Amino acid sequence: xxxxxxxxxxxxxxxxxxxxxxxxxxxxxxxxxxxxxxxxxxxxxxxxxxxxxxxxxxxxxxxxxxxxxxxxxxxxxxxxxxxxxxxxxxxxxxxxxxxxxxxxxxxxxxxxxxxxxxxxxxxxxxxxxxxxxxxxxxxxxxxxxxxxxxxxxxxxxxxxxxxxxxxxxxxxxxxxxxxxxxxxxxxxxxxxxxxxxxxxxxxxxxxxxxxxxxxxxxxxxxxxxxxxxxxxxxxxxxxxxxxxxxxxxxxxxxxxxxxxxxxxxxxxxxxxxxxxxxxxxxxxxxxxxx
Length: 290
What we know:
The structure is a single chain. The protein has helices at 45-60, 98-106, 115-125, 189-196, 201-205, 208-229, 249-256, 273-284; strands at 2-8, 12-19, 30-38, 67-72, 75-76, 83-85, 110-114, 134-139, 143-148, 158-160, 235-239, 264-266. By secondary structure, it is an alpha/beta fold. The chain folds into two domains: 2-118 and 271-284, Nucleotidyltransferase, domain 5 (2-Layer Sandwich), CATH 3.30.420.40; 128-267, ATPase, nucleotide binding domain (Nucleotidyltransferase, domain 5, 2-Layer Sandwich), CATH 3.30.420.40. Strands 3-2-1-4-7 form a five-stranded mixed sheet, with helices on both faces. Helix 3 crosses helix 8 and helix 6 (208-229) crosses helix 7. The longest helix has 22 residues, at 208-229. The model has no long low-confidence stretch (mean pLDDT 95).
């Protein structure tokens, strides 16, 4: 089957063409045309929809497809593909029937899941612990976290644990969800850019002399996130754009301690994980109304 896959985040919409068969291992998937487009969230709901449509059209212009697979930020009802809740990172998405909208636009099957869930599905089914429950954290615009159960790919087996909105600093920075002190305000690319007043995170993590306090605070907050995630699953994968900056990883794992030495690893699929996970779920997941 040929799929047009997109991953809608607060900053970019990623797109990918995937060719794969139901039941095939994720490692066998053929993909091409990985692209980025700005989400245009600051311009509002209609601008985001235009960006999403253009991203899908860019894939369809390259290859004919049988279906569309979508990963999106926000709380998504697994069985219907409706966005139940989204923060102001995606204004207008709360209550949005994203699957229905795309099905009407393109007249082909569409499946929609949460972006953290999609990344978790991809890393889990591409990894070493398929027979165990696994939590996957994604560090990007925010902090996503989902758990994939070992034995089922359905609404009961894939859980968005919303770790990014656990209170980490009472009365701390205001989150886009409206609360104060959410964990993603301390573990995310957005948080690091804010705290360092520098948008170049490669330069930030390379300069501990200048940004040592901010890097230490980021690593401590991530240690907290990992310990919370371990309450849900024995194995933990950490992905997202920040993990591709390798300089901080060794210091972080030392802070985390030896108890997690054989239970934690970096994600292997990079920024493609969301789109690939959406494809894998679309082909192999069990949905009631999608």
